[in-house]
Amino acid sequence: MTTAWHASGAELLEVEGIGLGLGSSLVEYRQRVSPLELLASYEQQHANFWTPADAEYPILLYEIADPPPIVFYRGRLELANALQLMPSVGVVGTRNPSDYGQRWTRRLTQQLAHHDVIVVSGLAKGVDRYAHQQTLDSGGLTIAVLGTGVDQVYPSVNRDLHERIARQGLLLSEHPNGTPPDRAHFPRRNRIIAGLSRAVVVTEAPARSGALITAQLANDYGRDVFAVPGSLDNLNSEGCLELINQGAQMILNDMTLITALGQLPQLETAGSNASRPDASGTDGPRDRLTHSTTPPLSPAMTQVLAAITDEPATLDQLVQAIAQPTGEVLATLVQLELLGLVTQLPGMRYQRG
Questions:
Q1: Mean pLDDT lowest for which of 34-43, 69-78, 332-341?
Q2: How confident is the model at residue 227 (pLDDT cuts 50, 70, 90)?
Q3: To 10 degrees, what angle do helices 299-307 and 326-338 make?
Q4: For the packed helices 127-137 and 159-168, what is the interaxial angle rounded to 10 degrees?
Q5: What is the pLDDT averaged over residues 247-272?
Q6: Main-chain phi, psi angles of 263, to 5 degrees
């Protein structure tokens, strides 16, 4: 940021999209305003935002290729921290689901809510709405990522749900307050949904769908992708069937996701006093997924952990030993760090504990 502020006029012109007119305006503007004055003015207008320099900035977004430089929020801020401790699943799909799509969206999100999995979606019509609504109705936790400012309601039919999530969940956006809907915002919004989710499930989607963009991004980020199979006669199933054909995991019943996440509830130890945010907005019952022992690990986490010893190993050494893409190994390492099983040392080296 400092480098950009102090860049010369010639250096600014090397940036794509900056021409003589804009470059001259930027240079002239910097002569009138200091960075601290600019930040103070912005904070007066927008008090509700995080940058990567803030501790509250969702850590999962560090794992994606293009994390938002600013995240605006409205709602229960503790849900951002909960993402570090609780699993999160993105649930996306068509804006016009069939009865079948509605029913399975509700069944899956109900199970996720009952197993303390945070449900992430985009607060659009259709599948998004059913996912958020069923999660809250089931006493679960949900995060909505918007393509508008967090103070804007879009579509208008979701006004009641928008306000409910603001009270009981968390609204996030990379756009400042007052930003209206724009077609270009929604595809980019999908990368944040994928980034905040440890897995993404598409419950029903046609061949050309924003949900498929989210699924592709999730795959690129090393997240697991799931799809609900549907009828060959239903155009809304074409996208899901194609995802399965490309290797997405198929939802066979309402416990498929829970089993795959390795998050089936276990008996709580007597000494546990951990708590999770309650859907009502107050501290609730102790987290069923918090135990004195290590929770079950996914196959990817088990494989990476097995390759790490007490002797520090570099990221390149681990990638070579595990024979998996660098992005997937790095994402798994972050999850193991959050569980306290792996420590990162200077120079991108890793060791046990």
A1: 34-43
A2: very high
A3: 90
A4: 40
A5: 69
A6: -120, 30
pLDDT, greater one: 291 or 133: 133
Q: Are 82 and 118 in contact (CB under 8 A)?
A: yes
The values of phi and psi at residue 89, to 5°, are -130, 130
What pLDDT digit, counting tens, does each position of 308-351 carry? 888 888 888 888 888 888 767 777 777 777 677 888 776 678 88
Tell me the per-residue pLDDT of 277-313, one tens digit each, with 9 for 90 and over: 665 554 432 232 333 344 567 788 888 888 888 888 8
Rama region for 58: left / alpha / beta (φ>0; ψ in -120 to 50; rest): beta
Q: Which two tokens stand for residue 172?
A: 């996030």
Q: What is the pTM of this model?
A: 0.69
For tokens 């998996």, the residue is 324
Tokens matching residue 198? 């440890």
Q: What is the residue whose two structure tokens read 């239903």?
A: 234
Pairwise CA distance, residues 301 & 260, whole Å = 12
CA-CA distance, 285 to 273, in Å (whole number)? 9
Averaged pLDDT, 197-215: 94
For 26, the token pair is: 């930027």
Q: Cα torsion at 17, 21, 23, 29 (round to 10°)?
A: -130
According to the 3-state scheme, what is the secondary structure of the chain?
Answer: CHHHHCCCHHHHHCCCCCCHHHHHHHHHHHHHCCHHHHHHHHHHHCCCEECCCCCCCCHHHHHCCCCCCCEEEEECCHHHHHCCCCCEEEEECCCCCCHHHHHHHHHHHHHHHHCCCEEEECCCCCHHHHHHHHHHHCCCCEEEECCCCCCCCCCHHHHHHHHHHHHHCEEEECCCCCCCCCCCHHHHHHHHHHHHCCEEEECCCCCCCHHHHHHHHHHHCCCEEEECCCCCCCHHHHHHHHHHHCCCEECCCCCHHHHHHCCCCCCCCCCCCCCCECCCCCECCCCCCCCCCCCCCCHHHHHHHHHCCCCCEEHHHHHHHHCCCHHHHHHHHHHHHHCCCEEEECCCEEEEC
Residue 118 has φ and ψ, to the nearest 5°, of: -75, 130
Query: How far is Cα 308 from Cα 323, in angstroms, rounded to an integer?
Result: 14
